[in-house]
Amino acid sequence: MRTLQLAGTQVPIIGQGTWQMGENPSRHKEEVSALRLGIDLGMTLIDTAEMYAEGGAEQVVGEAISGQRDKVFLVSKVYPHNASHKGVPLACERSLRRLKTDHIDLYLLHWRGQYPLEETVEAFERLRESGKIGRWGVSNFDVDDLQELAAPTCATNQVLYNLEERGIEFDLLPWCQQNTMPIMAYCPIGQGGKMLANATLKQVAARHGVTPAQVSLAWLLRQETVIAIPKAVRPEHVQLNAQAAQLKLDARDLEALDQAFQAPQRKQRLAMV
Ligand code: NDP
Q1: Residue 189 near ligand 1, beta carbon < 6 Å
Q2: Is residue 265, in this structure, part of any structural domain at all?
Q3: Which of 29, 70, 147, 185 is the most exposed place for a label (fewest CB within 10 A)?
Q4: Range(s) of the domain holding residue 124
């Protein structure tokens, strides 16, 4: 699988999301297996957060990476209400315990909250110095937030980005590209919802003998600085997502998709879920 440089490490362009994992004990085994299958298929970047199932998703990840921690690039996120001097190290320790590891490769501020950015950054830097995290970054930050942050050590910005939500192409994506900051695209297949039923998307998929979800991933990955983190529990979904890394869309496909899902003509408020 193609890789790109994130936080000083080569990571695969398709990783694995974990939102909504860890919520239902009866699905635990299935979720662990899905993540393990994804790792075997090269999707070794795993994205999680203390928020997901209030630690439940991190526990699923901890089990999935057990015995193969060194293969995985682990991303987790701190709640904004924990993003203080005292809160960050405590939240990180709890995450490390659930993940059954001694370090998180990339630790993100989930979204902006009540604590000054400087305070959170200082706490992140201390965790980095102690080796508990490799690098840090942010999520759901718009251009003005990144400008205020003004931190060259911020490794990424994780944002909502898919065919239906192209707002970041107007200013945020170019800003991140100019500042050599890779973007992590969340909800890359529109949460498996109505986007996948779009007639043009289906036509493009049929032309290549692939699925609409695979086209939606390949469309994001046409850009060299974007990493997609689809979440999948069904093994067939995991397989299809890994295979999407090989799909190349041509000019005709991209033009058709541009007609069906318009690029932004002006600044749009940063979309979030
Ligand atoms: P996704 O766009 O990844 O969609 C997930 C849904 O799509 C699931 O229902 C899944 O089904 C289904 N699916 C997966 N692969 C396929 C496929 N090949 N074909 C058809 N359907 C498929 O949405 P998410 O909201 O999960 O976003 C991805 C990840 O991004 C999250 O899991 C999380 O890690 C991160 N995220 C970050 C946010 C932030 O604020 N920073 C906010 C939201 C998400 P099934 O599971 O049954 O296989």
Answers
A1: yes
A2: no
A3: 70
A4: 3-260
Tell me whether residue 269 is in a domain.
Answer: no
By the 8 A CB rule, do 94 and 59 touch? no
38 close to ligand 1 (CB < 6 Angstrom): no
- Report the CATH number at residue 194: 3.20.20.100
The residue count for the chain: 273
Rounded to the nearest whole angstrom, what is the distance from the C-alpha of residue 118 to the centroid of ligand 1? 31
pTM of the model: 0.98
Distance CA(38)–CA(45), nearest Å, equals: 9
Q: Atom 12, ligand 1: which residue's CA is nearest? A: 192
Please tell me the total count of domains within the chain.
1
The tens-digit pLDDT sequence of the chain (273 residues) is: 999 999 999 999 999 999 999 999 999 999 999 999 999 999 999 999 999 999 999 999 999 999 999 999 999 999 999 999 999 999 999 999 999 999 999 999 999 999 999 999 999 999 999 999 999 999 999 999 999 998 889 999 999 999 999 999 999 999 999 999 999 999 999 999 999 999 999 999 999 999 999 999 999 999 999 999 999 999 999 999 999 999 999 999 999 999 999 999 999 999 999
Domain assignment present for 271: no
Question: Cα 196 vs. chain centroid, distance in angstroms?
Answer: 19
271 lines ligand 1 (CB under 6 A): no
Round to whole Å and give the CA distance between 69 and 47. 14
User: Which residues face 184 on adjacent strands?
Assistant: 158, 227
52 in active site: yes
Cα of 171 vs centre of ligand 1, distance in Å, is 25
- Comparing C-alpha atoms, which of 94, 53, 106 is closest to residue 229? 106
